[in-house]
Design brief:
- The chain folds into five domains: about 150 residues, Jelly Rolls, CATH 2.60.120.260; about 140 residues, Jelly Rolls, CATH 2.60.120; about 150 residues, Ribonuclease Inhibitor (Leucine-rich repeat, LRR (right-handed beta-alpha superhelix), Alpha-Beta Horseshoe), CATH 3.80.10.10; about 90 residues, Phosphorylase Kinase, domain 1, CATH 3.30.200; about 160 residues, Transferase(Phosphotransferase) domain 1 (Transferase(Phosphotransferase), domain 1, Orthogonal Bundle), CATH 1.10.510.
- Helices cover about 20% and strands about 30% of the residues.
- A hairpin with a 5-residue loop joins β2 and β3.
- The longest helix is centred in the last third of the chain and has 21 residues.
- The structure holds 2-acetamido-2-deoxy-beta-D-glucopyranose (NAG) (9 copies).
- One 2-acetamido-2-deoxy-beta-D-glucopyranose (NAG) binds next to loops.
Length: about 850
């Protein structure tokens, strides 16, 4: 609701002149519209300013409570305890009831206080519903980290979740919810963005104390400008003076800054006000508003007119502020601002008086928020919420938040698309009774359903909407009725386990005709129709995981051909007519990895004649297949793999990965104790050779180097974001970046990659190559995608020899995005290219000053 007068004064400025409302006194006692959770606290209590705190126990499941061991002595009761959670792949959510379509301020605080007696400062993520909100980085035991956001509720509950700990354990001290009344914080795209607080400053404050409830009925915290912190309100202009008044200030609606905040201000007696502050998480788009009120009594011949000055943004200086005129009087609020402004990390701003003004500028208060994208949650969120609402007593049903994001529920796996779908549900042995929840039949992305070992009763519902279902485990329940024939129409069904239920009738023809694994033993009243098929083809075999299917099928094939052993009654039926077996094989083979015979490999490589490289895990040989394709054969050293299972896991992983900038995996061989991986042959060898090689093959073109860096970045990005779960390469270096005939780069040797469960860290024995190893990983032993990005940064700097920021910006967008994820460690290093040189040579870093602890 912009008033016409204000809009005329400055087209770019935004005005919220809302209807005049009577200022209502702050409510006393418990605050309506407030939720104030004392996390880990056992008792309800009121604090010094009258806020009622309640224990968080009924808002969250899981976690443990702890007392702080270190305090600075000034903390109120709600800051004496925390609730903390395991550092695993899960998320831990607080769920609070809200009013749909209402704006809320959400504030979470984190005061470490060495609660775990380990003095390891935690680092973890918080999210609002499915949307990443912030990364909490604790830097000191006695200073609370505070995060605030303003969000329009879009559902009857709002959840705040903790997840993805990269150091220490996630914890929380307090969680507060404050309901807004009006529309001061209305923004044009509230369905897509929420506001995260960056700065809310009370200028001219009379003490270091912030102003909050009850002065502010919504309990916003207006921070004093006299507090001294690093890079907070520095570069203050000479002539800046603090002024204050006791006269009432007219603020038109009660969502605007409280009177106490508006009663103080700074003025620039020499004609200007200047400040500089760091905006955490910027550059970003911001919502920023300044609050002015004339609180000095100016003589009739005096004026106060000024303009905003932001270096590099001359357009902002067009409108002139004349507080008295704009606010239509003294002691009245005027609040111009920008609803969408792109701001840098280091934000310098000021106000400068105009030539015809007799007084310098004034500033009473300021708010800056960052726009944070609202992540669309899982497409199945509503279905899943309805399903878990049936089990209000079960802890697995209380995990809260979105089923998939930012981490999925512990018993759910989701696809990695933009709005993920649930593809796997594992509720084995959860003591669940009643019928199978009908919601499950609505999950159209479902591939795997495991409900075995419960007490499910009633009939098996109709799963025909779940066209992707491949694995159904309903064994060891109390299910009755017949097997629905529609199960046989599921086009992708591979396994159906229903043994040990109370099913009856006959196995539908639609199922017995199919090439699937069906175990229906232990259902005394259930019979198979066509005995002929089951007697000739029924095969006993044990199946471990999807990739083993091929191995299992081969095993079974030989088994039947050579032995024709009489099968167990009703146990496993691979009900495939003999002539169809061949096509069944090729189907399995094409969707998993190709298996070469050892003799094929020996022929192709001339008995491992030409060695073309070696890595930590094996030796690479050149080969040529009978069809003319050139291959690179990696013969793994025997101690690289513990056994068949690990090897096949790797093969499964490799066969899932296809990308133009990743070296193509062609297949594997496992015979006579040799574990072999077969890749496409890359004609131009490794990037390393071209960076350090003989002059004629050295790449000198700057653009060519950029192209290579960008290619590699795309490959790495795919490993990180295109695969679910995420894959971390762990050993990126210039000798693992290969060049094809056309000198385009592909990333190689991701055979050692381990999938990162749900994108979070994987703890494992540190390995990698000295020089490329992320020191943070080395110290924490926590593996994240950042470790790859670190290594990529090293490759990038060493290959591009970029020495300036401007060269860096000419890099392709994927590489820039990747490098954007870099943390301080690398930034510190990249500012010293010569240091990088040392690192890439693999030299120890004893000369490297602050990096000395790095080996
Ligand atoms: C919340 O409000 C929005 C808009 O009015 C509506 O689309 C949505 O269905 C509501 N959600 C619930 C759960 O009531
Ligand atoms: C919100 O507005 C209602 C009246 O519309 C008022 O009673 C209530 O006190 C307001 N809440 C706050 C925190 O100001
Ligand atoms: C405000 O806090 C700073 C430290 O942040 C301290 O040096 C200063 O004395 C305090 N001022 C007042 C008025 O308390
Ligand atoms: C305003 O008038 C007073 C005298 O009434 C004079 O002292 C002062 O200099 C004048 N200020 C300006 C800016 O003209
Ligand atoms: C802000 O502006 C940018 C660029 O003009 C646009 O992409 C973005 O969506 C806008 N944000 C909001 C919240 O309107
Ligand atoms: C104000 O005065 C200065 C110096 O006298 C001049 O450079 C500037 O252009 C003037 N600004 C305006 C807006 O007239
Ligand atoms: C299973 O659930 C029943 C109630 O439905 C309960 O009595 C029993 O203790 C539960 N068993 C386990 C192992 O949780
Ligand atoms: C089939 O079910 C029976 C009974 O639980 C079990 O003994 C047998 O091992 C199962 N077969 C397979 C291959 O899982
Ligand atoms: C987990 O944290 C790491 C490091 O803080 C970050 O790079 C990664 O994106 C986070 N993962 C998710 C799923 O948010």
């Amino acid at each position: 609701m912009a008033s016409a007068a204000a809009a005329a004064a400055a087209a770019l400025l935004l005005f919220f002149h809302l209807q005049l409302l009577l200022l209502l006194p702050a409510p006393s006692g418990a605050q309506p519209g407030f939720i104030s959770l004392d996390c880990g606290g056992a008792h309800d209590h009121a604090d010094a300013i009258g806020i009622q705190w309640t224990s968080d126990a009924s808002f969250v499941t899981g976690g443990q409570t702890a007392q702080l061991l270190v305090q600075n002595g000034l903390q109120s009761q709600q800051f004496t305890t925390v609730r903390y959670f395991p550092a695993d792949n899960r998320k831990y959510c607080y769920t609070m009831n809200v009013r749909n379509r209402t704006r809320y301020l959400v504030r979470a605080t984190f005061l470490y206080g060495n609660f775990d007696n380990s003095n390891v400062y935690p680092k973890f993520d918080i999210s609002l519903g499915a949307s990443p909100w912030s990364t909490i980085v604790i830097n000191d035991a006695t200073t609370p980290v505070v995060e605030e956001a303003i969000i329009l509720a879009a559902a009857p509950t709002l959840s705040v979740c903790l997840s993805n700990a990269s150091t220490g354990q996630p914890f929380i001290s307090t969680l507060e919810l404050r309901q807004f009344n009006g529309s001061l914080y209305y923004t044009t795209d509230e369905a897509r963005f929420f506001l995260a607080l960056s700065a809310r400053i009370n200028f001219g404050a009379e003490s270091n104390d912030s102003v909050r409830y009850p002065d502010d009925p919504f309990d916003r915290i207006w921070e004093s400008d006299s507090v001294r912190r690093a890079n907070y309100l520095v570069d203050v202009a000479p002539g800046t003076e603090r002024i204050s008044t006791t006269k009432p200030i007219f603020v038109s609606v009660n969502e605007e800054p409280p009177e106490k905040v508006m009663q103080t201000a700074v003025v620039g007696q020499d004609g200007s006000l200047n400040y500089r502050l760091d905006l955490e998480g910027f550059p970003a788009n911001a919502w920023g508003v300044s609050y002015f009120a004339e609180i000095e009594d100016l003589a009739p011949n005096e004026t106060r007119k000024f303009k905003l000055e932001v270096p590099g943004m001359p357009a902002l200086s067009k409108p002139t502020v004349d507080v008295e005129e704009n606010a239509q009087g003294k002691y009245r609020l005027y609040e111009p601002g920008y609803t969408n402004l792109s701001l840098p990390f280091v934000f310098s701003f000021g106000f400068k008086k105009t030539n015809d003004s007799s007084k310098g500028p004034i500033l009473n208060a300021l708010e800056i928020y960052k726009y944070v994208q609202i992540t669309m949650g899982s497409q199945d969120a509503i279905i899943m919420a309805s399903m878990v609402s049936r089990y209000s007593q079960a802890s697995w049903a209380q995990e809260g938040g979105d089923p998939c994001l930012p981490a999925s529920w512990s018993w759910v796996q989701c696809s990695s698309e933009y709005a993920p779908r649930v593809f796997s549900i594992t509720l084995s042995g959860k003591n669940i009774t009643g019928s199978i929840p009908v919601e499950l039949t609505k999950l159209s992305g479902l591939v795997e359903l495991r409900l075995d070992g419960n007490s499910f009763s009633g009939q098996i519902p109709d799963f025909s909407e779940c066209r992707n279902l491949q694995y159904i485990h309903l064994e060891n329940n109390q299910l009755t009725g017949e097997l629905p024939p529609s199960l046989g129409d599921l086009p992708n069904l591979k396994e159906l386990y229903v043994q040990n239920n109370k099913l009856s009738g006959q196995v539908p023809k639609s199922l017995s005709k199919r090439s699937i694994i069906l175990n229906f033993s232990g259902n005394s009243a259930l019979h198979i129709v066509n005995n002929a098929i089951s007697h000739t083809i029924a095969i006993i075999c044990v199946v471990i995981g999807a990739i083993m299917l091929l191995g299992a099928a081969i095993g079974c094939y030989f088994f039947t051909c050579r032995r024709k052993k009489k099968p167990y009654e009703d146990t496993v039926v691979i009900a495939a007519p003999a002539k169809k077996l061949g096509s069944y094989f090729s189907e399995v083979a094409t969707e998993s990895a190709h298996r070469f015979s050892l003799s094929e490999i020996e022929d192709a490589t001339d008995k491992f004649e030409r060695r073309i490289g070696s890595g930590g895990f094996g030796i690479v040989y050149y080969g040529k297949l009978t069809d003319g394709r050139e291959i690179a054969v990696k013969l793994l050293t025997n101690d690289s793999y513990q056994g068949i299972r690990e090897f096949l896991n790797e093969v499964t992983l490799l066969s899932r990965i296809h990308h133009r900038h990743l070296v193509t995996f062609l297949g594997y061989s496992q015979q006579d104790g040799k574990n072999i991986l077969v890749y496409e042959f890359m004609h131009n060898g490794t990037l390393k050779e071209h960076l350090r090689g003989a002059a004629d093959e050295k790449i000198t073109s700057w653009l060519k180097r950029l192209e290579i860096a960008e290619d590699a970045a795309k490959g790495i990005e795919y490993l990180h974001t295109g695969c679910s779960p995420t894959i971390i390469h762990r050993d990126l270096k210039s000798s693992n970046i290969l060049l094809d005939k056309n000198m385009r780069a592909k990333v190689a040797d991701f055979g050692l990659s381990k999938p990162a469960v749900d994108g979070s860290h994987v703890s494992s024995i540190v390995r990698g190559t000295v020089g490329y190893l992320d020191p943070e990983y080395y110290i924490s032993q926590q593996l994240t995608e950042k470790s790859d990005i670190y290594s990529f940064g090293v490759i990038y700097w060493s290959s591009s020899q970029a020495t300036s920021q401007s060269q860096m910006t000419t890099l392709g967008s994927t590489a820039v995005t990747l490098l954007h994820g870099l943390d301080h460690t690398l930034r510190a290093v990249t500012s010293t290219p010569s240091l990088i040189h040392l690192w890439t040579e693999g030299t120890t870093c004893s000369q490297c000053g602050r990096l000395r602890r790095w080996p």
